[in-house]
Amino acid sequence: MLPRYGREPESSRTPLAFPGYRSTALRAPLRTPVDLPHRLTEVTGPVLGEDRVTAADADLTLRMGGEAQGQRIIVFGRVLDSDGRPVPHALVEVWQANAAGRYRHVVDNWPAPLDPHFDGLGRVVTDALGRYEFTTIKPGAYPWGNHHNAWRPAHIHFSLFGTAFTQRLVTQMYFPDDPLFGQDPIFNAIPPTARHRAISRFDLERTQDNWALAFQWDVVLRGADQTPFETDDDGDVA
Amino acid sequence: MSSPHLSPLVRGAREDNDRVPGTPRRGSGFLDEPFRLGTTPSATVGPYLAIGLTWPDGPHAVAEGTPGAIWLRGRVFDGNGDLVPDAMVETWQADPDGRFAHPDDPRGAVTVPGFRGFARSDTVDGGAYAVCTLKPGPVPDGAGGWQAPHVDVSVFARGLLDRLVTRIYFADEAEANAADPLLSALPDDDARRTLIAQPGEDGYVLDLHLQDCAAKGMVETVFLAV
């Protein structure tokens, strides 16, 4: 019997269209999507592991022969499914702006300095318990053209595969108590009941003396529905 | 006892309930519904996806030159009928025997060495995607029938707060397409047409339309809820 991946209730899922985020207007589809029952193509997915990463990919602070500018941080956590099971040996791709809030990308022309020793790209694979960890610098906030005086809160982009097509997730991790949350439509597109799931937690225990601050963030992918218990005549679980 | 402020763990629980087996008591840790963590909400991939998601071998589900290799090509359009040059298209599919390069495929490993089943292509090149792959075989539908050869597709872009999912079918599989459970469930041929790739110079071609654009005669692609 194939697993079936439960769908998050609509009340805690990010909607495709959000009027405050202007770019959704011409891009978010307007028709209701058609249900695709989960069959073999959906319950399988690409197996992408250690062969896609090197040890250096987990440290974004050492690139191009030198050290990146900024506040050094450790970002760590677990990748779980919604049944609480770890997702082991799964590829996690991250990308981010530098300490000044500038991306190393041809269309980012905000006049903040590029850092010659920061490219903003990291890749890690979760261990047998679903844990991941990388070292980076805290990204800066940056302005964008969505509305007058619009600023993105500091964030790190995450891309995860899990083990099935249904689990694919691209999202953004935020930092605690960011004063820019209130005016950011990308953050506020997340329903209020689920916003806390996008915010990392400062972890004093995992900071490193004289070296780095630490933020913990667990990512939860959709889980496979467990097979319902079958009961025998006495009502006991078989 | 039931109140919107109580966690689901104590909903319906009674503090004095230590008599009725199989019913909850406050503080007992009794779960009255299956344990479930809330999933992490999705967010847009943003305009800088190329930093994090570019692989040198990204567009290649198989190496070029593999016998039977084809290109799946197309363009991505928005609701103005303009090209979307900052999207990413990912594909996942069975091999020519209908098997998946995945440990949970009960029928065993794929028969083509080096076949990854997965490819990704950005649309920086004028809004066009292109992936090099093998044409998939038919896949069992889990109910004794068959699904026509198909490719599962994810679309990510600035302005999309979640991924879009759709499928690519093949125009030269008319008989299999007619029996396919998803295609048959669609309301009409206009909808089916948005999922069926036409033969092209070096493979197949299917454009993706994020929205209708009546002025240019474009019909929104059928997107799928998985």
Sum up the structure in keywords.
heterodimer, A: 238 residues, mainly beta, Protocatechuate 3,4-Dioxygenase, subunit A, five-stranded mixed β-sheet, four-stranded antiparallel β-sheet, 26% strand, B: 226 residues, 2 domains, nine-stranded mixed β-sheet, two-stranded antiparallel sheet
What does this structure look like?
The complex is a heterodimer of chains A (238) and B (226). Chain A is mainly beta and 238 residues long. Chain A has a domain of 164 residues: Protocatechuate 3,4-Dioxygenase, subunit A, CATH 2.60.130.10. Helices cover 3% and strands 26% of the residues of chain A. Chain A has two helices and 14 strands; from the N terminus they run E-H-E-E-E-E-E-E-E-E-E-E-H-E-E-E. In chain A, strands 4, 7, 12, 13 and 14 form a five-stranded mixed β-sheet that branches. In chain A, strands 6-5-10-11 form a four-stranded antiparallel β-sheet, with no helix packed on it. In chain A, strands 2-3 form a two-stranded antiparallel ribbon. The longest helix of chain A has 4 residues. Chain A is globular and about 50 Å long. The C terminus of chain A is likely disordered. With 226 residues, chain B is mainly beta. Chain B has two domains: 36 residues, no CATH class; 168 residues, Protocatechuate 3,4-Dioxygenase, subunit A (Sandwich). Chain B is built from four helices and twelve strands. Chain B is globular and about 75 Å long. Chain B starts with 48 loop residues before the first helix and ends with a strand. The interface between A and B is large, with 81 and 73 residues. Strand 1 of chain A pairs parallel with strand 12 of chain B.
Secondary structure blueprint with pairings:
The complex is a heterodimer of chains A (238) and B (226).
Chain A: E1 34-35, H1 40-43, E2 62-63, E3 66-67, E4 72-81, E5 91-96, E6 121-125, E7 131-137, E8 142-144, E9 150-152, E10 155-160, E11 169-174, H2 185-188, E12 201-202, E13 213-216, E14 219-221
Chain B: H1 49-53, E1 69-77, E2 87-93, E3 118-122, E4 128-134, E5 139-140, E6 146-147, E7 151-157, E8 164-170, H2 174-179, H3 181-185, H4 189-193, E9 196-199, E10 203-205, E11 208-209, E12 224-225
Parallel strand pairs in B: 1-10, 1-11, 8-9
Antiparallel strand pairs in B: 1-4, 2-3, 2-7, 5-6, 7-8, 9-10
